[in-house]
Amino acid sequence: MNARLDHRAPLVFDTRELGRRPGALKRLSRSIAAPKDLGIEVIGVREGATVELDLRLESVMEGVLVTGTARAPLTGECVRCLEPLERELEVDYQEMYSYPDADAWGRTADPDDDAEEEDTLFLEDDLLDLEPVLRDAVVLALPLQPVCREDCLGLCPDCGARLADDPDHHHDAVDIRWAALQGLAETIQGGEKDDMGGADAGVDEKQEK
Q1: What is the per-residue pLDDT for 194?
Q2: Measured at the alpha carbon of residue 17, what is the angle toward residues 118 and 133, in degrees to the nearest 5?
Q3: Residue 144 has what pLDDT?
Q4: CB 134: neighbour CB atoms within 10 A?
Q5: For residue 184, what pLDDT is reported?
């Protein structure tokens, strides 16, 4: 069983003033603290940040149509260079909250229509919960791959240095196959020197005799 809505919650709004008179309007603004997890892994609205809401509540035959705008600061990190970034988000949303029992014409909702109800938001004691609508609107508006700037060069794949700080940064590329041959050649040269040193020592011993 779902918990009843708390009219004191920051994202719960009361529609009783509208009644069920189609065409009745109510406009309001509210500043709220952002709920937890309002975003995705790399960018989002920090919990507790101020979210500015402008709403228009309109009574229609089926329920209450909510139209509005949300503005909030975004924080995250660049996916290329991992530097922190900040943005301002402004997103629009619109959602219908249906009457739970009957529409304005007195037609009772079909209780067997479970599939449709899964995607339908309902009023509860003339209260509506804006959080799921706000959450969907914000998440859908976020960039999946945020960058500090479009031409961000990212990090050096070899040492992790930030390439924007040193555009000429580079490493001498060495073919791993040549590196292996170079190591083998150095080993052989070292062995030859040891052999030459032994041979010279033998010659010296013979000369002393």
Answers
A1: 58
A2: 30
A3: 92
A4: 24
A5: 67
For residue 107, the model assigns a pLDDT of: 47
Angle value at C-alpha 202, between 197 and 206, nearest 5 degrees: 150
Which residues lie below 8 Å from residue 13, measured CB to CB, with a gap of 6+?
28, 55, 57, 66, 127, 128, 130
DSSP three-state, residue 118: helix
CB 131 within 8 A of CB 11: yes
Secondary structure element (H or E) that encloses residue 29, with its range: strand 25-33
Is the C-alpha dihedral spanning 31, 36, 38, 39 positive or negative? positive
Provide the residue type at 163 as one letter.
L
**What are the beta bridge partners of residue 66?**
57, 95
DSSP 30-93: EEEEPPTTEE-SSEEEPTT-EEEEEEEEEE-SSEEEEEEEEEEEEEEE-TTT--EEEEEEEEEE
Using 50 as the pLDDT threshold, list the residues of the chain that sit under it: 1, 103-109, 111, 115
Q: What is the helix (H) or strand (E) element at residue 122, kind and residue range?
A: strand 121-122
pLDDT of residue 128: 95
Q: What does the DSSP 8-state code read for residue 159? A: T
With a CB cutoff of 8 Å and minimum separation 6, the contacts of 47 are 33, 34, 35, 36, 37, 38
CA 32 to chain centre: 21
Q: Does an H or E element contain 141, and which?
A: helix 131-141
Q: Would you kindly state where each structural domain of the chain is located, as residue ranges?
A: 12-163, 175-209
Question: pTM here?
Answer: 0.69
Distance CA 6, CA 117 (A): 22
Look up residue 46 and give its two tokens. Answer: 């920090």
